[in-house]
Amino acid sequence: MEIYNHPTFAMACQQFDTVADLLEIPASDRDRLKFPKRSFTVAVPVRRDDGSITVFPGYRVQHHLSLGPTKGGMRFHPDVTLGEVAALAMWMSWKCALTGLPYGGAKGGVAVDPRLLSPGELERLTRRFTQELIPFIGPQVDIPAPDVGTNEQVMAWMVDTYSAHAGHHVPAVVTGKPVVLGGSLGRREATGRGVAYLVGRAMDTLSMDASKCTAVVQGFGNVGSVAAHSLQKQGVRVVGVSDVGGGLHNPAGIDLVALERHLATHRTLIGFPGAEPVTNAELLELPCDVLVPAALERQITAENAGRLRCRILAEGANGPTTPDADEILTRRGDVFVIPDILCNSGGVVVSYFEWVQDLQSFFWSESEIVDRLHRILEGAFVQTLGLSRRQGIPMRLAAMSLGVKRVWDARRLRGIFP
Ligand code: NAD
After folding, report:
1. How confident is the model over 89-100, as pLDDT tens digits?
2. Which of 197, 249, 253, 289 meets the CB 3.0–4.6 Å disulfide criterion with 213?
3. Best mutation site among 90, 116, 147 for ligand 1, i.e. most ligand atoms within 8 A of its Cβ?
4. By C-alpha distance, which of 378, 377, 369 is closest to 351?
């Protein structure tokens, strides 16, 4: 299926093929598991503030429908393509299956730089994109959530547009919305909090003492900023952070509260006085105990994998490490990888809680949410580590084989219609 051609989709397929070989999945079942069930491309016309009209391409990919509705984020970023979104949807499928959620994977987005839109243009873009997708999304069909370049406000506009069409409030159509509209306590923090929880579990496994450890975080958005704060709360010294404009390094530790104040005023980390500037490439190679890529795909490659100086690689982003880089890390043997589909799964787990709460109109306390989140992450971590050790395989292969196996089992049992 050439429509999905993209380096990130090729990477997701290569990972899948490795797992399929391990699980001895017959050739006849592989394409059915790999290629998305459905994908949509829409043209999104937006009236600009100056009266002109720009048409942006929008996408939504639903990877498989065998375990329930599909679930996954909406990304607003200039590099969004159908192939990238298809790869991210595939990873969502393995992630939901690994954590035992009743969903197939999905992902979507618009090829746009949201920073170049006014608030009014962003709202019109979001509403028109949602309108184009109305026949294909819904609480029992496909449930979007925030991702790169989208946030609670974008989710609020999506709920409002969908609800205006339905004629009544339909909170369960998206997750990651504001709490007052039926969002869940703890959803905003869920992904970064989950990353920090799993880093803690990896440290236990490696007998590392958090209070003697340092961390570097690439990307200071929803995932990266919460991961940095949560790690700091666990006693870890955060010595490096970055955003799209570049990075910051201070071996004595970065004052994250002062950094947030700087970000609120300047909308970039650049120019923060409490640390030295570094490039994003340099940031990844800083000495640290924990490296958290929390920006985009394909950041750790064959080119830089040999130079990483961390003990734990905690993948907050989706697909930050290429298969070539994986091979190098496996050969090195000194980096404990918490693979993306496990490491950042806290986001979709609490999205699942949000969806359940919306469907029941019965809301939980934050401590109930955090407790249930930790229980699910613990189960997935223990299963992944156990399989990795029993079979002597890397953590990523173990996590993916647990996820792929569940989807494969479901599809075999359901058979093919007609
Ligand atoms: P976000 O838009 O809130 O933040 C992204 C951050 O990355 C920003 O600080 C941005 O400046 C930075 N960035 C962008 N391009 C960069 C580059 N080339 N180099 C360095 N930094 C760059 O997005 P987010 O929601 O935090 O998502 C980050 C990653 O986590 C993505 O891979 C996403 O798919 C994944 N993820 C997000 C969630 C979630 O709940 N939001 C859940 C699971 C996985």
Report:
1. 999 999 999 999
2. 289
3. 147
4. 369
